[in-house]
């Protein structure tokens, strides 16, 4: 334990050996009851911060609230539970459902980070002496001259910077990511092994928090499309020719090649889902590859803006990084021209720009 706390101290040092000057010693941390937020709170307290835990009650999930309360009790820190079920439904669940109804594949974690977690943490911090805020995300914040920069974690297997491109300079300047130097989940677990052994043995959360264990497809069937649109519909090609029947559009996503049940000499893939007509459009898999991607709701983190070239981008967290150039249409819209075609950039997902490990900004993939 001594080795870990020395090796992974919380002084946020820049690679240039300049330190981010943290003037405030009070910090509000999002406390989920999981390993990452618990370890972050532990490290912050050991560093001398006055740590206040905040748990968001999104779903009336007693297990989450109780686990977070146990962490706060063990760490002897102040703990607050905020009832935000209504806001969560309006800002995350409803837009997620609306996106699917429009044939998109929205990212609810992105919606939650942008519209709920960081917004509410910032408001709570402002009401508590303009405190710093912290989360258990795996990412890094650096300061260069007068600019705060978001960088991807050195550990690409844990990096979560893709979900954080929306953070502006004000939030970046008040934000701490205590886990940014950890190389593995095992090292994080070891930190709280003695303090909370039952937590360190827990499984890492997976999937979408508001979708029940019965499964993604059934949730879409019940909550997104209702009864009628999940009735069998048509598979069609890009000319509108009927190729066969499908059991319900909730079972199909962009890029899907398996489970289509269509006999063809070609390798077919889902290239579009049209909820309005209960139709799934199929084409050769090669048709999924696009060199031009339209991005809306563009957010640029750096005050210097986004260069026309000299960046990479990716269209999902685990996706390949592509080189390209950007053609700005307006302040919030652009076309990204990839040097090599991108497979199945999904409508509703984020496209995030990088320069090395630095996050430059991002936006949402939309129809042009």
Provide structural commentary.
This protein is of the alpha/beta class and 368 residues long. It has three domains: 25-200, Rossmann fold (3-Layer(aba) Sandwich); 225-287, Adenine nucleotide alpha hydrolases-like domains (SH3 type barrels); 288-365, Beta Barrel (Elongation Factor Tu (Ef-tu), domain 3). It contains nine helices and 17 strands. The protein has helices spanning 2-7, 35-46, 62-75, 85-101, 108-126, 169-172, 185-191, 197-200, 216-224; strands at residues 26-30, 50-57, 78-83, 132-134, 139-144, 147-152, 175-176, 233-236, 242-246, 268-274, 279-284, 289-300, 311-314, 322-328, 334-343, 350-355, 358-365. Strands 12-15-14-13-16-17 form a six-stranded antiparallel β-barrel. Strand 16 (350-355) and strand 17 (358-365) form a beta hairpin. Helix 4 (85-101) runs antiparallel to helix 5 (108-126). The longest helix has 19 residues, at 108-126. It is globular and about 65 Å long. The chain starts with a helix and ends with a strand. Mean pLDDT is 86; it is low at 1-24.
Q: What's the name of the CATH homologous superfamily of the largest domain?
A: HUPs
CATH architecture of the largest domain: 3-Layer(aba) Sandwich
What's the helix count? 9
CATH class of the largest domain: Alpha Beta
Poorly predicted ranges (pLDDT <50, ≥5 residues)? 1-24
Q: Write the element-wise H/E pattern from the N-terminal end onward.
A: HEHEHEHHEEEHEHHHEEEEEEEEEE
Termini separation comes to 54 Å
Strand coverage percent: 25-35%
What percent of the residues sit in helical stretches (DSSP H or I)?
25-40%
How are the strands ordered across the major sheet?
12-15-14-13-16-17
- What's the mean pLDDT score? 86
Number of separate strands? 17
CATH topology of the largest domain: Rossmann fold
């Amino acid at each position: 334990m001594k080795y870990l706390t020395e090796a992974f101290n919380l002084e946020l040092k820049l690679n240039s050996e300049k330190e981010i000057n943290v003037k405030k010693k009070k910090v509000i941390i999002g406390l989920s009851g999981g390993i990452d937020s618990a370890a972050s709170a532990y490290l912050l307290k050991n560093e001398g911060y006055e740590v206040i835990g905040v748990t968001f009650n999104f779903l009336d999930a007693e297990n989450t609230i109780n686990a977070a309360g146990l962490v706060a009790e063990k760490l002897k820190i102040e703990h607050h539970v905020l009832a935000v079920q209504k806001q969560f439904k309006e800002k995350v669940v409803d837009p997620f459902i609306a996106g699917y109804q429009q044939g998109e594949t929205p990212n609810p974690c992105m919606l939650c980070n942008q519209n709920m977690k960081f917004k509410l943490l910032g408001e709570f911090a402002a009401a508590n002496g303009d405190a710093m805020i912290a989360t258990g995300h795996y990412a890094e914040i650096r300061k260069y001259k007068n600019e705060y920069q978001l960088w991807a974690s050195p550990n690409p297997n844990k990096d979560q910077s893709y979900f954080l491109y929306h953070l502006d300079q004000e939030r970046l300047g008040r934000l701490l990511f205590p886990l940014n130097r950890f190389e593995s989940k095992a090292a994080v677990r070891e930190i709280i092994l003695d303090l909370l052994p039952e937590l360190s043995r827990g499984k890492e959360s997976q999937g979408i928090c508001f979708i029940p264990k019965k499964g993604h497809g059934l949730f879409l069937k019940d909550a997104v499309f209702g009864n009628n649109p999940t009735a069998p519909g048509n598979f069609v090609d890009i000319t509108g020719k009927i190729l066969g029947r499908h059991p319900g559009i909730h079972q199909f996503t962009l890029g899907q090649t398996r489970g289509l049940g269509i006999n063809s000499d070609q390798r077919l893939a889902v290239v579009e889902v049209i909820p309005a007509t209960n139709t799934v459009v199929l084409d050769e898999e090669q048709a999924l590859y696009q060199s031009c991607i339209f991005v809306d709701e563009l957010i640029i983190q750096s005050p210097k803006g986004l260069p026309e070239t000299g960046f990479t981008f990716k269209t999902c967290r685990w996706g390949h990084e592509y080189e390209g150039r950007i053609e700005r249409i307006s302040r919030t819209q652009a076309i990204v021209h990839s040097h090599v075609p991108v497979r199945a950039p999904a409508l509703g997902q984020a496209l995030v720009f990088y320069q090395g490990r630095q996050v430059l900004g991002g936006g949402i993939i939309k129809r042009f």
